[in-house]
Design brief:
4-stranded antiparallel sheet; single chain; alpha+beta; 487 residues; 17 helices; 17 strands; 7-stranded antiparallel sheet
Length: 487
């Protein structure tokens, strides 16, 4: 999840500005069916993607979104649009048909003023206003198979978490608009900014920030053990994106004028979580640690992790695995066998009799089966741990036939309890907005960043600075430091 692919909005291939008259047309009412579906799916979607932020920052995002959406041409924009800030470590924003728009806290940390936030929200409102969803119904029908697959795969891990996630991924996969649609939404967002009084520089500003972040992530990827969730690939970014947005902003005749609200925006951003929320567990190096559950495991070298709200996925050339579990009462052997049996989606499969063992002082049960995957065969193994009387955790592992749990043996043997001191030491990274003092340099401030590597590069990228930038006393900049966990 620190390998957060910069997403927001896809690029436009053409350099020619095409006329978009949608904003000038009579007010358009949203499809009642799509509104009802968005309302029904909202709670599950929010839960699946980290939960929703509440309080002052969430209200601020809502107010900025409503300001730009008022110029979208959608009837009753104050009631038609709903803006939600997700507690997610992925840089992304997306809209679903029906006027529900989502932005992650991680994306907001890249921004440096309110006009950039307004552009991001305006772009998503533009997709809704232009009714791009109707234009991609063919893609939706093609992707509906993922929802079915998710329902089956969800049973593999003993809960609906995976199935729900894949079902949501199927929906979000349909949000990958055509390049022309993305371009139209960019143009609409620029119009919304100019008409609502914002400086249209917000468009090229956030897109440049995304480009910087993407370039930096490409550099650090080799040292990270995180993977980007598939749902976060809905908005690919191209190299010419910021340049095109700059041209559009210039054509408004208002570039460099209007609202930026930098200080107010930074005040709202101060204290925002960056990267993982410890309440969902944290990934650092090869370790996954969860202070609330007081557990830790380590993945093998060469593998990567993706942290979800209720499970952790592990993948690499040697196979795939998932860690999950929760409340359970009953024989441990029955739990392990049930996880495998449900993999068959109701079909009976041959399962080896679970074997009892002990791992790091915990009773454990191990079982396996062999299954056909396309033209090849794979081993599917389960190791279940009796964490306490009412809790069982497990790994499900898929490897090439004949390997069993081999590639994951070190991971299976690494699950252990954290001590109270170890759990208490896990802290979140947060945005710290500081005022530059006399003598401060980019190098001295970067040394305070809460990372083990690429501190200077991260600081420069976060603030849109160059290595030779001269800082002025009184200037505000963003740092990422260790903070305190929410109670």
């Amino acid at each position: 999840m620190s390998m957060r692919k910069a997403l927001l909005i896809a690029a436009a291939a053409s350099s020619a500005l095409l006329p978009v008259a949608l904003a000038a047309q009579s007010a358009r009412y949203l499809n009642p069916r799509e509104v009802a579906e968005a309302q029904q799916q909202h709670a599950a979607l929010v839960e699946e993607f980290g939960g929703a932020e509440t309080g002052q920052r969430a209200a601020y995002v809502q107010s900025v979104g409503q300001r730009v959406a008022a110029y979208s041409g959608v009837a009753n924009p104050g009631q038609s649009f709903r803006f939600t800030t997700l507690n997610s470590a992925v840089e992304n924003a997306f809209a679903v048909p029906g006027g529900y728009i989502y932005i992650t806290r991680q994306l907001m940390t890249l921004m440096n003023d309110e006009s950039e936030l307004a552009f991001a929200l305006g772009h998503e409102a533009g997709h809704v206003a232009a009714n791009h969803a109707q234009q991609r119904e063919r893609v939706q029908r093609r992707n509906s198979i993922y929802g079915v697959f998710g329902a089956i795969l969800g049973s593999v891990f003993g809960s609906s978490a995976v199935g729900n996630l894949l079902s949501q991924q199927a929906q979000l996969r349909t949000l990958s608009f055509s390049r022309q649609q993305e371009y139209d939404a960019d143009r609409l967002a620029t119009q919304y900014l100019a008409r609502s009084g914002y400086d249209p520089a917000g468009g090229p500003g956030i897109l440049a920030a995304l480009a910087r972040s993407g370039a930096l992530e490409a550099r650090v990827q080799g040292r990270e053990t995180r993977s980007t969730p598939e749902w976060a690939s809905t908005h690919p970014l191209s190299e010419n994106r910021a340049r095109q947005a700059q041209v559009m902003a210039q054509q408004t005749g208002r570039l460099g004028t209007g609202i930026r609200n930098r200080d107010h925006f930074l005040a709202q951003l101060d204290g925002t979580y960056v990267d993982d929320d410890p309440a969902q567990g944290v990934i650092e190096d090869v370790y996954f640690r969860h202070p609330g559950l007081r557990l830790q495991f380590a993945i093998p070298v060469g593998f990567q992790m993706q942290n979800g709200t209720r499970s952790v996925s592990i993948s690499g050339s040697g196979g795939q695995a998932e860690f999950g579990g929760g409340g359970y009462q009953g024989p441990l052997e029955s739990y392990a066998a049930r996880v495998l049996q449900e993999l068959g989606g109701g079909q009976r499969i041959a399962i080896a009799q679970p074997e009892r063992t002990t791992i790091n002082g915990m009773p454990a049960a191990v079982t396996a089966t062999r299954a056909q995957a396309g033209s090849s065969w794979v081993d599917v193994s389960v190791v279940a741990y009796q964490w306490d009387r009412d809790t069982v955790y497990h790994f499900v592992m898929i490897t090439r036939a004949g390997q069993g749990i081999g590639p994951f043996r070190s991971m299976v043997n690494s699950l252990r309890r954290l001590t109270p001191a170890e759990a208490a030491a896990i802290r979140p990274r947060v945005v710290d907005v500081v005022t530059v003092r006399a003598g401060d340099t980019v190098q001295s401030l970067a040394s305070r960043m809460a990372y083990r590597s690429f501190r200077l590069e991260r600081f420069l990228s976060l603030n849109g600075l160059a290595a030779n930038s001269a800082l002025s006393p009184g200037q505000k900049v963003k740092l990422v430091v260790y903070g305190t966990r929410r109670s």
